[in-house]
User: Fold this.
Amino acid sequence: MTWGWLWRRLASVVIVLLLCSAAAYALMDALPGSTAAAILGTNATPETIAVVEKDLQLDRPLPVRYGIWLGRAVRGDLGVSYQTGEVVSDVVRDRLPTSVELLVLTQLLAVSIAVPAAMLAARREDGRFDRSASLWSFGMVATPHFALGIVLLILFAQKLHWFPVAQYTRLADGLGANLRSLVLPVITLGLPLSGIYFRLLRADLIATLRSDHIAFARAMGFSERRVLLSRALRPSSLTLVSVAGLNTATLLGGAVIVERLFSLPGLGGMVFEAVLKRDIVKVQAATLAIALVYVLVNLAVDVALTLLDPRIRLARSAG
Assistant:
């Protein structure tokens, strides 16, 4: 990995952020109807609509409005919500930790289930455990998040009273209570994701275990456990690492149903509510925050792939 590649990658991060924010701005502007009328509701008059359009600069061309917003965003000013009067940067700062914590815990759960299961399944292909785990993974992948979440809520929250019902506790208010309030949402998102990760890693492990260097390691007298851990897992994990990075955006901004089901104050719910209310200031800010986390995570994934695969490291050093 060279500094030249890293600088090019950082430049691409800036370009992606610009494109994402511009696309979000354009899509909100393309929604049918008047944004000012949607904000004011059914009692809007032409005079009040004109006032709101002037306040939000909706009477100016789209490129001009985007340029003004971008200049303020670079300085950390994401605007003020016209509907609620909230400073949007404060709202994002308040909601982002919840979404990031949900993302991290979900990925940890999915990986901690998928990796050991895939290693055991690949060790004895078509064995009893392999067939059972494959059947389980198909079921997890096919299970909708909302259905799994409702079942978990009814069983573990309402009937057994093991976990709170729609009662989120912030990390600052206590680690134990915070983790307890996130158990069911994390399981709801993590179990289907673990099925995807299991199938990816199992297929790659089986292919790796059939390669020549694995046969050589076995001929050298290495135990099957050592072969799996030190020879097969690392080259087989590249696809898993890549897909985990791609799932970041889905978990961060796309878990709207789970956030609403468990009353989590995250960015996904914020985007959903802001779109319904045509709160373009909040939509733009949340989109920028999600895009920023996404590109940073994928930058970290690129660095991890470079460290894991010598071929990628050699190609980037040559470039």
About this structure: DSSP finds 15 helices and no strands in the chain. The CA atoms of residues 152 and 294 lie 29 Å apart. The mean pLDDT is 83. The radius of gyration is 24 Å.
